[in-house]
Amino acid sequence: MVAVLPELLRVTEDDVRAALDVVLDPELDEPITDLGFVRSVAIDDGSVTAGPTTVTIHLRLPTSFCSPNFAYLMCADSKDALSALNGVDRVVVELDDHHDSDLINAGLAADAGYLGTFGSEAESNLDELRETFRRKAHTAAMERSLTALLRSDPSVREEALGEVTLERLPAGRHTDALLRRRRALGLPTTPNARVLVDHEGRPYDTTEVPMALRRARATRISIDGNAHFCRGLLRTRYAGSGADQAPRLDGAEPADHHHLLPIATKEHQS
Amino acid sequence: MYTKDGENYFIVDAHIALWDAREANIRNIHGKQFIDCFYDYHRNLSPESEVWSYDEYTYYGGERLMKDLFQDGHVDHAIFQPAYLGEFYRNGFGQTEEAFQLAQAHPDKLTYNHCFDPRNGEQGLDDLRRDHEKMRFTGVKLYTAEWHGESRGWKLTDPWAVRYLEECERLGITNIHIHKGPTIRPLDRDAFDVADIDHVATDFQGLNFIVEHVGLPRLEDYCWIATQEPNVYGGLAVAMPFIHTRPRYFAQIMGELLYWVGEDRLFFSSDYAIWTPKWLIEAFVDFQIPEDMTEYAPITTEQKKKILGLNAAKMYGLDVPEDLRLPESATPATGPRDPGAADVADSPLATV
Fold first, then answer.
1. Which residues of chain B have pLDDT under 50?
2. Compositional bias of type Basic and acidic residues: which residue ranges (chain A) (predicted)?
3. Quick check: helix, strand or coil at residue B12?
4. Is domain B2-346 given the CATH code 3.50.7.10 in the classification?
5. A146, A154, A242, B61 — which has fewest CB within 10 A?
6. How far is A35 from A112, CA to CA, in rounded Å?
7. Residue B208, Cα to own-chain centre: how many angstroms?
8. Which of B188, B250, B256, B338 to mutate to test the interface with A (most CBs of A within 10 A)?
């Protein structure tokens, strides 16, 4: 048994990547592992040096000028996720090729936290930033579900969408995603809960429903568009990085090789 | 002018640059990172046939610019929107003197807009007055993510920015083009937030605020403020090239913009030399909303004519040949400009 136990506890690259699946790009509402942001994983299990087990990962982003607050969040969340892994003694997270790489990497190495890393540029914490994008992610998920319902059931009227409850939504990835976002905001997920609500769970008056849906649609388009643009920029910046990206169905285009999408256009009007 | 299928389009490219990012002008690693970021935008969204070599891209000069825009590119008039970036480039990124001289030599084709940084305080205000005296510009391009000493960004609502906007009103600099980059301070909040534009648009009713790249990556926030303010416009720089690789996304951007902002407040821009105008104009004239997007009405030829040039020509008082003009539409000053845009007749969103 003594010889087997360390083998079982040995951390693998799969363990590391699975642990990183919980780290989201808050802006794009997707795991960094799906986006191809994890550049490398190295594990030193200490067998040679008889030292501690050290996991070192490198992260990469689509541009040098991606917002440093999001960059920092993803790095810090990665360090937390890996530090919680059984059998890992030490974690090194390094952000490559960013305008704030030196600053962020030094802060991570020293466990300086957000305030300690950014000094006077930081005020208190990044909770509000996270919350802003949790709300946007919920808004987009809500719009996807309701628009899918409108398209699938011609008897549903747009004005009546305010009355639609969760039990009316078909089982599937849109509904799963919506329930996940609702939990993240602390909104009810009971079958009779209304779908179209604001971030505090308040429903809309019938007259406000079309505008609420329109605003939600703009949010969804924005997130999907950014997610695909960021993916594309990463592929342009780092040759071969596309192999590390999972396809994103929301906002997919014919150029992404999704053959089911129509490309016929409307009659030209003058 | 561009002609297609018997229709003539007067073209104004409302956002162009003459930059120098050659090695000799790069001050530090960030100057290199900045032009590399631009080059990745260029490579990622351009058709393969329109991709430049890196060396061409770092500096192309006035002669190449004139050829790409006016000889090959169908453009009738273009507007310089310079970014200074003095912390990244020894002689700045946008080449003020070269661009101004070029505009002087071709006043019928080029308009020179200037830039300022409110963190330059009183000295900067004096410079603005002096530069305006010399160059007589009616517009400025402001980049809120510019670095400046210890500061890595500013807001339009900063007290000094308000003083500069007051000076713009006094001098008759009425067209304020805003490029929202990631404004770093404070890091606690969303760096691309456009809320400050909402404030100054309300406080400075005599100024036009043109939000470049229509607020991307915060299209939704931009649409929401633009719909509430009569003096907020949208520049289509960066949005345009999605027409090639991501036409469905582009259709949605246009559908949202026409609904919220309306056909009279949107300006075509190539963002030259990030992209070249020729293919963008040709693709836009041919463009239509995909048939299955029943939530949007088709884009009309009239709307395309306004966006491609007539809107910017009006704001900048450019002389448009009589036969190319169009009457302005009777859209409301605020609120969704085209509430009827949804193609309800054959839409699953229909209420009947």
1. 343-352
2. 250-270
3. strand
4. no
5. A154
6. 27
7. 13
8. B188
Residues A154 and A206: beta-carbon distance below 8 Å:
no
- Mutant choice from B38, B184, B187 vs A, greatest count of A C-beta within 10 A: B187
Helix A209-237, helix B247-260: angle, nearest 10: 140
Nearest-angstrom CA–CA distance, A194 and A24: 27
Boundaries of every domain in chain B: 2-346
Contacts of A120 in chain B (CB under 8 A): 150
Q: In b/e form, how buried is each residue of B233-246, taking b as 16+ CB within 10 angstroms?
A: bbbbbbbbbbbbbb
* DSSP secondary structure of B240-265: TTHHHH-HHHHHHHHHHHHHHT-TTS
| Superfamily of domain A8-123, CATH level 4 | Fe-S cluster assembly (FSCA) (3.30.300.130)
ipTM of the complex: 0.93
**Nearest CB neighbour to B289, from listed A214, A232, A266:** A266
DSSP secondary structure, B4-66, as one string: ETTEEE--EEEEE--BB--GGGB-SHHHHHHHHHHHHHHHHHS-GGGPPPHHHHHB-HHHHHH
Are the C-beta atoms of B279 and B47 separated by less than 8 Å? yes
**Tokens at B78, concatenated:** 């273009």
- Report the C-alpha gap between B11 and B17 in whole angstroms: 17
Give the model confidence (pLDDT) of A167-212 as tens digits. 999 999 999 999 999 999 999 999 999 999 999 999 999 999 999 9
